[in-house]
Design goal:
It is a single chain. Helices cover 37% and strands 19% of the residues. The chain is an alpha+beta fold. The strands form nine sheets. The protein has a seven-stranded mixed β-sheet with strand order 2-3-4-1-7-8-9, sandwiched between helices. Strands 16-15-14-17 form a four-stranded antiparallel β-sheet, with no helix packed on it. α9 packs antiparallel against α13. The radius of gyration is 31 Å and the shape is flat. The structure holds zinc ion.
């Protein structure tokens, strides 16, 4: 018998159904020649700090965290059965693992097959089960299943045909050592960061702060953008614009010049100078063009479109696309590629045959814009499979997701090309300035029958070369606009390529219609970033991490727009105050380490060393803060800080800062905010304020103009709050 361990029950059912003759048992399914069992995703997790330090704890009892033993770098990482919210192992988890273990040890089982999802997480989820079933819980030793053969079932989709052909072509589990190495390294590094820094920051601030390698740069990006908006000061300027009619058509001409808002006379003089000239059409070019459809979808590009068009949150779109995959309708969804593998051509031909029967005008096409092995890491773009769902059985949201994928697939393989005329007219105003008007007219729809066109079709006035154009330039008062909040789409684009922010911003401010179909853009750069691991998070993890940030109330998602919440401001600002630097550079540096492990260019141990080195630097940086140690102690909620200068009752640390306990009875209004001008205020400084009426000099405030400054805080005249004191 061969034992297949699937990552999830749904996958186990699909595998068993494909094999046939399935008979259900308790915790597994028996079919022809195979036993199929399953995990529930992660059955194991890494042990807690206390398990390494050997401190006695009562199972299930809340643990009091202390600075002692931080940072903790385990010599060898150990796994244990995953614990629930209550700190205890769930009975179902324990029982399922016992089932897996018993099956793996059966005399008649000669082969154990890893059927984790086809990615690094899936690889180690099942691998850790196999290791533990044979008494190894450290994750660094060689896999040994008591002499049994170890194989890997690698499934790009869950259709019966794919399951059967993958079973006939089982891979050796040993071929996936590097992928597992990347998975283990990711788990260990994220543990080192998350556990050590979460405890450190939580103890220091007295408030639970979830610090992680990827979550912090994500929250920071949203924080930075929102602060830029909050402190934005619009500037007035004059634009130079003509809107005159020529031959019955308005010809809009907008000069590149911007004249400061307080120089109206100058703006008028410029207009007079322009209007003294004659304007002529000096060039006209019309080009027939074939417009290319957008590329097939990667997960985040699909989530971008669903977020932008249907306001569907990422958590929801991932859940649906995962479900459609588990039902066999779509290929593996957690992919970062928009391309197909050349080995998939026959499979695609078969799917196209089925899609054509549905009435789509499609035909197979071999094209480097579709099939490109160099832009695929382990998974191809998301496409439909040959199994077409019954539309009446899908929910409206499921139908939206499925047909978005289907329409893009049909557009990419559309038989008829999309033809357009592109025209450019140059109007020259004397020798002062050339204005270029651009327009596109679609002549034949082609793939646009199925997919949205974002080409900004625009009709131009029928001007010819040599025509005179009427002009009358006037100064138009305008205002600079603040940057825009991150949306699902713009945040995803930032995370995929965090070092191209400036470029992306420039594109956003451009008045041209957005072109998310990708034609004409060079994406070599983007794929280089992904393949080298420079992106923040991966397609497989990003949705979960963003969702955690939302659940932790660090950020908010309304429609498809993200914004920072007070807790997120506190997280970022207190990390800055503690000199804990976890920027995108550090995160992507480790992302690159993971890729090098995947490519066999680095040992796991070396990767972990690099992470530990970074964490040590963070701890040392936090300890060696230039400000006195007392400046980074924020106490815990409930700590008594001193006596109220108004009523004499105790002042305590509250959730939002420091406040008088007399508030409830006498309505005393004394309070000091936790954050003043983007600076976290320490307990010691509030104590000093209460005792002497003034704090020590506090560095690093940020004004509304974005300027940093140092100042003392003193009691206000009525003593109910703290105000700035710049004296000494
Ligand atoms: Zn009071």
């Amino acid at each position: 018998m061969k034992l297949i361990i699937a990552e999830k029950p749904s996958l186990a059912r699909n595998i068993a159904a494909a094999i046939g003759n399935a008979k259900k048992a308790n915790g597994y399914i028996v079919c022809d020649g195979y036993i199929v069992t399953w995990a529930f995703g992660h059955l194991f997790s890494l042990c807690d700090i206390e398990d390494y330090t050997g401190k006695e704890t009562v199972p299930g009892a809340p643990r009091k965290w202390s600075m002692e033993g931080l940072p903790c770098y385990p010599e060898t990482f150990r796994f244990a059965l995953r614990k629930g919210e209550n700190g205890l192992v769930d009975d179902g988890v324990r029982q399922q693992f016992e089932t897996i273990k018993a099956l793996a040890h059966r005399e008649d089982v000669d082969t154990v097959i890893n059927a984790g999802d086809a990615d690094r997480e899936g690889e180690i989820i099942v691998r850790i089960c196999i290791m533990n079933a044979f008494g190894n819980n450290t994750g660094t030793g060689k896999l040994d299943a008591g002499g049994r053969q170890l194989k890997r079932l690698w499934l790009p989709d869950q259709t019966p045909e794919t399951v059967r052909s993958a079973l006939a072509d089982l891979k050796d589990e040993a071929d996936y050592e590097n992928l597992a190495g990347e998975g283990f390294a990711r788990t260990y590094i994220d543990w080192l960061y998350g556990v050590n820094l979460t405890r450190f920051a939580t103890i220091k601030t007295g408030r639970l702060l979830r610090v992680g390698r990827v979550i912090v740069p994500i929250v920071k990006a949203i924080y930075d953008r929102d602060m830029a908006i909050r402190y934005f000061k619009p500037e007035k300027y004059f634009g130079i614009v003509s809107q005159e009619e020529t031959g019955g058509y308005v010809v809009p001409l907008t000069s590149k010049l911007k004249i400061p808002g307080d120089e109206k006379a100058k703006a008028e003089a410029v207009c007079a100078r322009y209007n003294a000239e004659k304007a002529f059409v000096t060039a006209k070019k019309t080009k027939k063009d074939t417009l290319k459809p957008g590329k097939l979808y990667s997960l985040s590009k699909l989530q971008n479109v669903l977020g932008k068009k249907y306001k569907m949150p990422m958590e929801k779109s991932l859940e649906i696309v995962q479900k459609l995959y588990e039902q066999g309708y779509l290929t593996y969804p957690r992919t970062n590629s928009e391309y197909l593998a050349s080995a998939e051509k026959d499979k695609v031909k078969k799917v196209l045959g089925v899609v054509a029967k549905l009435g789509y005008d499609v035909a197979f096409r071999d094209d480097k814009n579709i099939f490109d092995d160099s832009k695929i890491e382990s998974h191809s773009a998301i496409t439909p499979t040959y199994i077409i769902p019954d539309k009446t059985k899908l929910t409206p949201d499921e139908l939206t997701v499925y047909s978005t994928v289907m329409r893009r697939f049909a557009a990419v393989f559309c038989r008829e090309p999309c033809l357009a005329n592109r025209t450019e007219i140059t109007v020259s105003v004397g020798k002062l300035e050339d204005f270029v008007l651009k327009g596109t007219v679609i002549v034949q729809k082609g793939w646009m029958k199925y997919d949205d066109a974002s080409t900004g079709e625009k009709i131009l006035p029928p001007l010819e070369k040599g025509d005179e154009v009427n002009i009358n330039f006037k100064p138009v008062e305008k205002e600079t606009t603040p940057p825009k909040h991150y949306t699902i789409e713009t945040l995803n684009n930032y995370l995929k390529n965090p070092f191209r922010e400036e470029k992306a911003k420039a594109a956003e401010n451009d008045a041209q219609p957005a072109q998310d179909d990708g034609y004409g853009t060079d994406d070599a750069e983007e794929y280089r970033m992904i393949l080298e691991g420079l992106e923040l998070g991966t397609e497989a993890t990003r949705t979960g991490i963003i969702n955690n940030a939302i659940k932790s109330k660090y950020i908010d998602l309304k429609k498809d727009v993200y914004s920072i919440l007070p807790d997120g401001e506190f997280l970022i600002e207190s990390l800055v105050a503690m000199k804990i630097s976890m920027d995108k550079h550090k995160t992507s540096e480790l992302g690159r380490v993971l890729k090098r492990i995947f490519h066999g260019e680095m040992q796991i141990g070396r990767g972990i060393e690099l992470a530990e080195q970074q964490i040590t630097e963070v701890f040392e940086g936090a300890k060696a803060v230039a400000a006195p140690e007392t400046d980074t102690d924020f106490g815990s909620v409930g700590d008594v800080v001193g006596k109220c200068p108004v009523c004499g009752k105790d002042v305590v640390r509250t959730f939002f800062g420091y406040g008088c306990t007399g508030f409830r009875n006498s309505g005393c209004k004394f309070s000091v905010s936790m954050i003043i001008c983007r600076r976290v205020i320490s307990k010691a400084n509030v104590k000093m304020l209460l005792e002497t009426g003034k704090t020590s000099k506090i560095t690093g405030f940020t004004s509304k103009n974005g300027k940093t400054f140092d100042a003392f805080l003193k009691l206000s005249d009525d003593k109910t709050k703290a105000v700035f004191d710049f004296d000494r």
